[in-house]
UniProtKB/TrEMBL annotation, chain A:
A Pfam family per the record: Prenyltrans
Family under the similarity heading: Belongs to the protein prenyltransferase subunit beta family.
Gene Ontology MF term list: metal ion binding; Rab geranylgeranyltransferase activity
Cofactor(s) required, per the database record: Zn(2+)
Source species of the chain: Trifolium subterraneum
Record-listed E.C. numbers: 2.5.1.60
Name the UniProt record assigns to this protein: Geranylgeranyl transferase type-2 subunit beta
Keyword Methyltransferase among record annotations: no
Signal peptide boundaries: none
Cofactor mode of binding and number, as noted: Binds 1 zinc ion per subunit.
Quaternary structure and partners: Heterotrimer composed of the alpha subunit RGTA, the beta subunit RGTB and REP; within this trimer, RGTA and RGTB form the catalytic component, while REP mediates peptide substrate binding.
UniProtKB/TrEMBL annotation, chain B:
Family in the record: Belongs to the protein prenyltransferase subunit alpha family.
Matching SUPFAM superfamilies: L domain-like, Protein prenylyltransferase
Keywords recorded for this protein, A-Z: Prenyltransferase, Repeat, Transferase
Protein task: Catalyzes the transfer of a geranyl-geranyl moiety from geranyl-geranyl pyrophosphate to cysteines occuring in specific C-terminal amino acid sequences.
GO biological process entries: prenylation
Organism: Trifolium subterraneum (Subterranean clover)
Uppermost EC category: transferase
Keyword Magnesium recorded: no
Name by which UniProt lists this protein: Geranylgeranyl transferase type-2 subunit alpha
Catalytic activity: geranylgeranyl diphosphate + L-cysteinyl-[protein] = S-geranylgeranyl-L-cysteinyl-[protein] + diphosphate
Any Pfam family the entry gives: PPTA
EC number: 2.5.1.60
Keyword S-adenosyl-L-methionine carried by entry: no
C-alpha cells in the first residue's frame, strides 16, 4: 500500500479544468457546477485551495442561472454545488439569498418532498439538497421542515435504509441524502441506527472497499456515501478503517494522479473527490477533516454556524 | 467513469475519441441554441434526439423535449397526438439502451405516462425485458412501482412477480426488498389471504431459509430474515416498561429541622440537598403526547399540573423517556408523614408512537413518599471533599436492604401469543442444526435467542440463553474481524442485560461508597468497571442509580444515560470517548455534580461521530447562546470551543477530572474553569 499522492492529485484536478475539449468533459459539460464542487472541495481538503483563482470561479458562478452550466436549465442539483463552492471561498455574501431560497421553497411539494426542477421529478436526493442549501444560507425556517422530514421517513425500508421515493430500494447514496437531511434537521432519532448501521457496515467487502447495495461491486464513491452515513449515526467503528484506506489508496493513479472507482480503472474528478473525502473521514493524516452532513470541510461549516 | 479500464489510449483511439468529442460538442451547442430560441421544428427535434441518444444524461435536452411536445400539441390535431407521445417513448427506449441508469430518460417516460399515454401491457413488456437484462437496476424497479401504481396492478400480482424473480435466482436483494414492502402493505390492510400474520410469516421464514441455506454468504436474504424476526416479536403499541419510582416502592426523604422542614434529601443520597425529585417514565419506544391529560398524577401534595419533559438528545417532542420534577420545596411536606402518589398512564388517548400507534394497555404506578428526621446533619457543602474512585473506598454489599432502594425491573412485559414463541423456537432448531459454522448462522442464532429472551419472562431460562448468546458473539468477533466491533457492541448490550436482569445479578456490582470522613453515610455505587463494555444499555433497569462507575471499559458513547436522572457521581475514566458531543446525554442530568472523564480520547479525533447526535445549532435543535458565551468566555474562539461550551455550560459540576485527554491543555483548563463557575475541584486539585 502506498501513500496518498497528494501533489499528483492536485495536479490532476487542476489539469481536468484545462482539458475542456476531451470527450469526458464534453459528456459532462451539463454538470460542470458539480464538477467544480468536487474538484475544489478535494483541493481544499488537501490544503491546496489557494492554487485556484477565486475571482475567476466566483465570477463564473455569478454568470450562472441555477443550471449545471451556462445555457443549461435551472436545477436544484447545481444550486447546492454553487452555494457550496461559494462557502468554500467564504464568499457567501455574493449570493442573492432571497432569490436562491425562493427557488428552493418553490420546489417543495404538498407532501413535503422536493422536486428537482419545474418538471416535477421527485427524489429524496432533492430533499437533502434543498435542506442542506437553505441551511447553509441560514434560511431553514423558510421550508416546511416537519413535512420534509415526514416525507423522508416515509421512504424508510425494512433494512433501515432509504430509497428515492416511498417503496424504493435502499441505496447507500440515497441513505447519505436521507440521513444527512435528518442530521441537519436534528431528526436522527427517527433513524434505526443499529439496523441501518448493520446494513451499512455489511457494505464492506473482502477487498476492504465498500459497495452501495448488497451483492454489488465495491466502488470508491461509496467511501463517501456509506462512511458519512456511518459517521452521522456513530457506527463507523463497525467497519475496518485500515482495509478501506488500503482500498482507496489502491485506486490511485500514482503516475498521473486521480482516483478511480476500482483499482486499475480510469480516474475521474468525481472519484478523486470521493476518495480524498473518504480518507478525510477516515482521519488520514495531512487532510483537513470534512463534515459528514454538509459535505464541506469542518472549518467551513463551523465558520458558517459559529462565527458572529 | 465507472468500470472503464485505466490504460493509455492508442493514437488512433485518441483521434477517434477527439472526433467524437468534436461532434458531440457541436450537437450540444446547436441544441442549446435551439433551446434558447425555442425552435421546435422537425430538424431541431431530430437534433435533440440525436444528442440524447448519444448522451442521455444531458438533462436540459429532456426538458426541451417536453417543451417541444407541449408546443407541438397546441399546433396539431387530435389524431396526431398519440404519435407525438409515441415518438417520446421510442426516444426514451433508445436512450435507455445507451444508458440504463439515466435519471432524465426514466423521468421523461413517467412524464409521458402521466399524460395518460401508453398501456400497462406495453410498459410491462418493456420492463420485463429491461429487468431480465439487469434484475437489480433500481431505476427499473422504481419505474415498475410507478407503473403498477398508476395502472392499478394489484399488490397480489406484484408479490407473485417477486416470487417468480426470486425463484429464478434467489440472489436478488431488490426483489426481497420489494417483497417486504408489498407484504407490509398487505398485512397492514389485512387483505384477503393475509389476515393471519402468523401463517404469512411462517411461509416467509421457510422461503428465506431456502435462500440463506443455498448460499449462506449471499446477503440477499439476510436482512429479510431479520425483518421477519422483528415482525414476529415487536409490539407496535407503545408500552411502559419501567419507571422511577417503581410501582409499590417507598421513597424516603431525610428532613432537617424541628418545626420547619428544610434541607430535604433522598435517603442515602449522594446529594445533600434535594429540591426536586424526578419521576421517570420509560417506554418501549419513543412516544409523544405525554402531558397532564394522558398521564394523571394524583396526590394530596400536588397543587398544580405537572409539566412532562421528553428526554431526547435532540430536543425532539418525541422520546422514549419522559420526566417530571416534583418541586419538594414548594410542597410543605411534614416530618414523619407518608404521602401516596398514584400515576395512571394511557387512560385517555393521546400517547402515540412515531409510527402512529396508540398506547397499549393503560397502566398504573403507585408509590409512597415519606419524610423522616435525618440522623445526621448534612455537612455544609459536602462537595468540598474530593470524590475518590479507589477500590479501597468501596465496600462489598452482601445483601440489599430495603432502604437501598435498588429498584429492580418493573415487569411490564407484554403478553405475547404462543405462535410468536413457537415460530422463533422453530427457527432456532433450524439454524442450530445447519449453519453453526458460518457467520450468518451464528449471528442469526444469537438474534433468535435474544428474541426468545424477550418473549419468555422466566429469569432462569433467560440466563442460559444469555450465556449462549454471549458465546456466539465472542466467536463472531474472531470469525469476522472486519465487523468485530459490531459484535462487541452487541455483546456489551447482552452482558448488561444479564447483569441488570435481577437484584441477584446486580448485587456483585453494587458497593457501598465509604466516604473518607463520614463513616455513617453509605450510599450504593453501581460499579460496572473493567467489563470491556463498548456500549451501554439496559438503562431501564438502572433508573435508581446515583453513583456509577463505568471506568476502564471501551465506551465510545453514553447514549441512553440521560434517563438516569438521579445520577450525581459518574466515573467514565479510561474509556474511548472521542468528543465533547459524546457527553451530550449528561446535559439532561440535573443532579450531576462529580464527573471523571480522565483518560479518554477527547481532542484526539479530527472526525466527530457524535456531531449530529448531540443537540446543537448545526442540527438546528438549538440556538447558540452567544450572550452567555460572551459573558463567560469572552476572548475564546467559538469555532474552537463551541462543543465544550455546549456540554459544560448546562452542568453544575463541583468536581471534574479531565486529565489524560489530548484536549486538556492549559488554554482549555482556563476555559473550562470559566464555563463551570460551580467547580471546586479540577483534575484532583482544589481550585
Amino acid at each position: 500500500m502506498g501513500e496518498l499522492a497528494t501533489d499528483k492529485h492536485v495536479r490532476y484536478i487542476l489539469s481536468v479544468e484545462k482539458k475542456k475539449d476531451s470527450f469526458e468533459s464534453v459528456v459532462m459539460e451539463h454538470l460542470r457546477m458539480n464538477g467544480a464542487y468536487w474538484g475544489l472541495t478535494a483541493l481544499d481538503i488537501m490544503g491546496k485551495l489557494d492554487t485556484v483563482d477565486v475571482n475567476e470561479v466566483v465570477s463564473w458562478i455569478m454568470s450562472w442561472g441555477f443550471g449545471g452550466n451556462v445555457g443549461h436549465d435551472p436545477h436544484i442539483l447545481y444550486t447546492l454545488s454553487a452555494v457550496q463552492v461559494l462557502a468554500l471561498f467564504n464568499k457567501l455574501d455574493v449570493v442573492d439569498v432571497d432569490k436562491v431560497t425562493t427557488y428552493i421553497v418553490s420546489l417543495q411539494n404538498e407532501d413535503g418532498s422536493f422536486s428537482g426542477d419545474i418538471w416535477g421529478e421527485v427524489d429524496t436526493r432533492f430533499s437533502y439538497i434543498a435542506i442542506c442549501c437553505v441551511s447553509i444560507l441560514h434560511r431553514l425556517d423558510r421550508i416546511n421542515v416537519e413535512k420534509a422530514v415526514k416525507y423522508i421517513i416515509s421512504c424508510k425500508n425494512m433494512d433501515g435504509g432509504f430509497g428515492c421515493t416511498p417503496g424504493g430500494e435502499s441505496h447507500a447514496g440515497q441513505i447519505f441524502c436521507c440521513v444527512g437531511a435528518l442530521a441537519i434537521t436534528g431528526s436522527l432519532d427517527l433513524v434505526d441506527k443499529d439496523l441501518l448501521g448493520w446494513w451499512l457496515c455489511e457494505r464492506q467487502v473482502k477487498s476492504g472497499g465498500l459497495n452501495g447495495r448488497p451483492e454489488k461491486l465495491p466502488d470508491v464513491c461509496y467511501s463517501w456515501w456509506v462512511l458519512s452515513s456511518l459517521i452521522m449515526i456513530d457506527r463507523v467503528h463497525w467497519i475496518s478503517k485500515e482495509k478501506l484506506i488500503k482500498f482507496i489508496l489502491d485506486c490511485q493513479d500514482t503516475e498521473k494522479g486521480g482516483i478511480s472507482d476500482r483499482p486499475d480503472d480510469a480516474v475521474d474528478v468525481f472519484h478523486t473527490y470521493f476518495g480524498v473525502a473518504g480518507l478525510s473521514l477516515l482521519e488520514y493524516p495531512g487532510l483537513k477533516p470534512i463534515d459528514p452532513a454538509y459535505a464541506l470541510p469542518v472549518d467551513v461549516v463551523d465558520r458558517i454556524f459559529f462565527s458572529k | 467513469m465507472h468500470g472503464r479500464p485505466r490504460k493509455p489510449l492508442k493514437e488512433e483511439d485518441e483521434s477517434v475519441l477527439s472526433a467524437k468529442a468534436e461532434k458531440l460538442r457541436l450537437l450540444q451547442s446547436q441544441f442549446l441554441a435551439n433551446h434558447q430560441n425555442r425552435i421546435y421544428s422537425k430538424e431541431a427535434l431530430d437534433l435533440s434526439a440525436k444528442l440524447l441518444e448519444n448522451n442521455p444524461e444531458c438533462y436540459t435536452a429532456w426538458n426541451y423535449r417536453k417543451l417541444a411536445v407541449q408546443h407541438n400539441l397546441s399546433q396539431s390535431d387530435s389524431d396526431s397526438i398519440p404519435s407525438l407521445y409515441d415518438q417520446e417513448l421510442k426516444l426514451v427506449e433508445n436512450a435507455l439502451r445507451k444508458n440504463f441508469k439515466s435519471y432524465g430518460a426514466w423521468h421523461h417516460r413517467k412524464w409521458v405516462l402521466s399524460k395518460g399515454h401508453s398501456s400497462i401491457d406495453h410498459e410491462m413488456r418493456l420492463l420485463n425485458g429491461f429487468q431480465k437484462a439487469d434484475p437489480r437496476n433500481f431505476h427499473a424497479w422504481n419505474y415498475r412501482r410507478f407503473v403498477t401504481d398508476l395502472m392499478k396492478r394489484s399488490d397480489e400480482d406484484e408479490l407473485k412477480y417477486t416470487e417468480e424473480v426470486i425463484g429464478e435466482n434467489f440472489s436478488n436483494y431488490s426483489a426481497w426488498h420489494n417483497r417486504s414492502a408489498i407484504l407490509s402493505n398487505l398485512l397492514k390492510r389485512k387483505a384477503e389471504g393475509f389476515s393471519h400474520k402468523e401463517k404469512v410469516l411462517q411461509e416467509e421464514y421457510e422461503h428465506v431459509r431456502n435462500a440463506i441455506f443455498t448460499d449462506p454468504d449471499d446477503q440477499s436474504g439476510w436482512f429479510y430474515h431479520l425483518w421477519l424476526i422483528d415482525q414476529t416479536v415487536k409490539n407496535d403499541a407503545p408500552l411502559l416498561v419501567s419507571s422511577w419510582p417503581s410501582h409499590g416502592s417507598t421513597i424516603t426523604l431525610n428532613g432537617n429541622g424541628n418545626k420547619c422542614l428544610h434541607g430535604l434529601s433522598l435517603l442515602n443520597s449522594t446529594l445533600s440537598d434535594t429540591t426536586t425529585l424526578p419521576i421517570i417514565l420509560y417506554f418501549n419506544q419513543a412516544v409523544e403526547g405525554i402531558n397532564s391529560s394522558t398521564v394523571a398524577v394524583k396526590s394530596e401534595i400536588l397543587k398544580e399540573d405537572l409539566v412532562w419533559k421528553p428526554l431526547s438528545a435532540n430536543n425532539s417532542s418525541t422520546a422514549q423517556v419522559w420526566v417530571v420534577y416534583l418541586k419538594l420545596g414548594d410542597m410543605e411536606l411534614q416530618l414523619s408523614k407518608t404521602y401516596s402518589i398514584e400515576i395512571t398512564i394511557g387512560h385517555s388517548t393521546g400517547i402515540v408512537s412515531s409510527n402512529g400507534y396508540h398506547y397499549g394497555d393503560p397502566s398504573r404506578i403507585a408509590f409512597e413518599l415519606c419524610v423522616q428526621i435525618a440522623h445526621t446533619q448534612p455537612v455544609e457543602g459536602q462537595y468540598r471533599k474530593l470524590t475518590s474512585w479507589k477500590d479501597s473506598d468501596f465496600q462489598k454489599i452482601n445483601h440489599f436492604e430495603e432502604s437501598n432502594s435498588v429498584a429492580s425491573t418493573d415487569h411490564h412485559i407484554p403478553t405475547t401469543s404462543n405462535w410468536c414463541r413457537e415460530a422463533i423456537d422453530e427457527e432456532i432448531t433450524n439454524y442450530q442444526d445447519l449453519l453453526l459454522d458460518c457467520k450468518i448462522g451464528k449471528l442469526t442464532l444469537a438474534r433468535l435467542l435474544t428474541a426468545l429472551n424477550l418473549l419468555s419472562p422466566q429469569h432462569d431460562k433467560r440466563k442460559n440463553h444469555t450465556d449462549e448468546v454471549l458465546k456466539l458473539y465472542t466467536e463472531l468477533m474472531k470469525l469476522d474481524p472486519t465487523h468485530s466491533l459490531y459484535y462487541k457492541d452487541e455483546h456489551s448490550l447482552v452482558l448488561l442485560q444479564q447483569i441488570t436482569s435481577s437484584e441477584e445479578s446486580l448485587l456483585p456490582h453494587c458497593h457501598y461508597y465509604k466516604d473518607a470522613t463520614e463513616t455513617n453515610t453509605g450510599y450504593v455505587c453501581l460499579r460496572l468497571q473493567n467489563l470491556s463494555l463498548s456500549r451501554i444499555g439496559s438503562i431501564k433497569n438502572l433508573l435508581w442509580v446515583q453513583m456509577l462507575d463505568l471506568s476502564h471499559n471501551e465506551l465510545r458513547s453514553i447514549e441512553g444515560l440521560e434517563a438516569m436522572q438521579l445520577l450525581s457521581c459518574l466515573n467514565l475514566s479510561h474509556n474511548k470517548l472521542g468528543s465533547f458531543t459524546a457527553l451530550g446525554p449528561l446535559r439532561s442530568l440535573k443532579s450531576l455534580r462529580v464527573l471523571n472523564i480522565s483518560y479518554n480520547e477527547l481532542g484526539s479525533h479530527s472526525i466527530d461521530t457524535r456531531r449530529y447526535l448531540c443537540s446543537s445549532p448545526l442540527a438546528h435543535t438549538e440556538v447558540f447562546a452567544w450572550d452567555r458565551f460572551e459573558i463567560l468566555c469572552s476572548g475564546y474562539s467559538a469555532t474552537k470551543f463551541w462543543e465544550a461550551f455546549l456540554i459544560f455550560e448546562s452542568l453544575n459540576l463541583t468536581d471534574l477530572n479531565i486529565t489524560g485527554n489530548a484536549v486538556a491543555d492549559e488554554n482549555f483548563t482556563s476555559f473550562i474553569v470559566k464555563v463551570l463557575p460551580t467547580l471546586k475541584y479540577l483534575n484532583d486539585g482544589e481550585l
